[in-house]
Amino acid sequence: NFGVGEIVFTRQAIRGDRIRQDVIGEVIAVTFVKGSPREANVSVRLSDGSLQVFLPEELIGDPQFNQETGSYPERE
Length: 76
Description:
- Helix content is 0%, strand content 42%.
- The chain is mainly β.
- The strands form two sheets. Strands 6-5-4-1-7 form a five-stranded antiparallel sheet, with no helix packed on it. Strands 2-3 form a two-stranded antiparallel ribbon.
């Protein structure tokens, strides 16, 4: 669902008394694990510089990112 270099947003999540806010980041890796109940993990470098791993359903992709070419359209 996501490509390396794609800009993504995290989905806001509420866990107990904590709320994880929406954060912007860049996909740096997509990992597939054979036989795992999780099909894929997406490694994202967040805007604060930290690296976190998310499930695909925890992220919102950028509709301008071209999945076929793995890049953004050229700007004129």
